[in-house]
Amino acid sequence: MKRLLIDIPALIEAGGSVENIECGYFYHRKNSGHFALIEIAEFAVYCRECKDAFCETACPKEALEHTDSGMMKRYNMRCVGCKSCVLACPFGTIFPESMSYITSKCDFCLTDLAKDSRFKPLCMKTAPEGTIDIVEMSEEDPEKGIYFYGDNLAIISHHWRRKEGKA
Ligand code: SF4
Ligand code: SF4
Predict the structure, then answer these.
(1) Ligand 1, closest atom to CA 84?
(2) What is the per-residue pLDDT across 105-147, written as a single tens digit (0 to 9) for each?
(3) CB-ligand 2 contact for 50 (6 Å cutoff)
């Protein structure tokens, strides 16, 4: 299965040039859907998914909630950017620089990929080299720090995982 692979450490290292990543979608060429994906990826691999989540308690706008899978989700239409969650998280897993306040969604260019398997999305072409890729991958590879989220996203990063039986 084709997946969009995002290398978070490499993107962080690339710094400001991340702003220049473009999107093929006509209506948000600059504010591309990858920002929403990076936030999802960070919640997927870094967040401890606290049952009594400090971030959720600290949020004055009820903008943070657990999804059914236990993962945290920020509802950006409720979020006012106060960053209380950033301060409240004892593990430092919320990164204000990847919070987007404009709704944009990445569809992984699935339609274009279905037409042409060699299709390269604009984000991949305009991202710092090696940070965003389209890969054929069916299994996670923890030794290389590769983890999946959903059907179409693969993330390169270290991953915090709860040990079985721990609260
Ligand atoms: S930044 Fe947004 S999500 Fe975080 S505490 Fe403030 S309103 Fe809630
Ligand atoms: S963001 Fe921080 S406080 Fe919120 S659930 Fe994740 S680890 Fe816990």
Answers:
(1) 5
(2) 888 999 999 999 899 999 999 999 999 999 999 999 999 999 9
(3) yes
The first and second tokens of residue 76, run together, are 């950006």
State the DSSP code for 75. Answer: -
User: Cβ-count burial of 140 within 10 angstroms (0-12 exposed, 13-18 middle, 19+ buried)?
Assistant: middle
> In this structure, are residues 136 and 1 in contact, taking their beta carbons and an 8 Å threshold?
yes
Class of domain 2-156: alpha beta
HSE toward the beta carbon, residue 125, CA cutoff 13 A: 8
Classify strands 64-66 and 2-7 as parallel, antiparallel or unpaired: unpaired
In this prediction the pTM is 0.76
Question: Residue type at 33?
Answer: G
Which of these, 39, 24, 29, 30, lies nearest to 113 by C-alpha position? 24
Show me where the domains of the chain are located.
Answer: 2-156
Ligand 2 atom closest to Cα of 64? 4
Nearest ligand, CA 162: 2
